[in-house]
Amino acid sequence: MQIKSAEFVVSNSDVSKCPKDYLPEYAFIGRSNVGKSSLINMLTNRRNLAKTSGKPGKTQLINHFIINKNWYLVDLPGYGYAKVSKSAKKTFQKFITAYFSERKQLVSAFVLVDIRHEPQNIDLEFMQWLGENMIPFSIIFTKADKLKPKAIESHIIAYKNVLLETWEELPNYFITSSSKGVGKDDLLRFIDETNKN
Ligand code: GTP
Ligand code: MG
Questions:
Q1: Are 75 and 28 in contact (CB under 8 A)?
Q2: Ligand 1 in contact with 89 (CB < 6 A)?
């Protein structure tokens, strides 16, 4: 699939104000700074469509970007160690939960995890919650440029082993690097295959 156009549509903290056209959407979630916004820019070939920063806590709202005028990529705030106040974190958590519970047009969530890190409880718990709520998701291992291929392989094996302690079947997963363009074709193919529009 080719991305011919990508445009920002709306940002908000209220799910009821998200677009009502019922076009399919794919949402990026994960710890602050894991690379959600960078991945949206990589997929769309745009430098600054989604705002990125070296400082965790950059994305603070639900951001809808319309792709090829008929489906959405959705950038969300991170969970975890964002350098924002406790009350802001609580607000994020509330609307992130509302977003995933209410957006029936969500085709799939992408849960991003940094390929360099050991499995973190916060991510495993979030995946568990998605599973319990029957929300389809794939895992995206980010920042693959930071590890050598052998280390990537061993980190993925270790991650799979932890997942298999609670999941009977492993979720779909992708390996990406936004700085090197790795994983773009695989992700776009997955979107193409799952998107009915
Ligand atoms: P929040 O909006 O704060 O939740 O963060 P985010 O998950 O949207 O992360 P963002 O895309 O803003 O990226 C965070 C930092 O990681 C930035 O300094 C990016 O340049 C860097 N980064 C993102 N993706 C990659 C990658 O694939 N490789 C490398 N080396 N750095 C990356
Ligand atoms: Mg962001």
A1: yes
A2: no
Q: Are 195 and 66 in contact (CB under 8 A)?
A: no
**Could you give the ipTM of this predicted complex?**
0.99
Residue in the structure block whose two tokens are 């890190």: 117
Specify the ligand 1 atom closest to the Cα of 55: 3
- The residue whose CA has the least distance to atom 21 of ligand 1 is 35
For the stretch 147-163, pLDDT in tens is 999 999 999 999 999 99
pLDDT-derived band at 88 (thresholds 50, 70, 90) equals confident
* 3-state SS, residue 138: strand
CA distance 38 to 100: 21
> What's this model's pTM, rounded to 2 decimal places?
0.97
Domains of the chain: 6-194 (3.40.50.300)
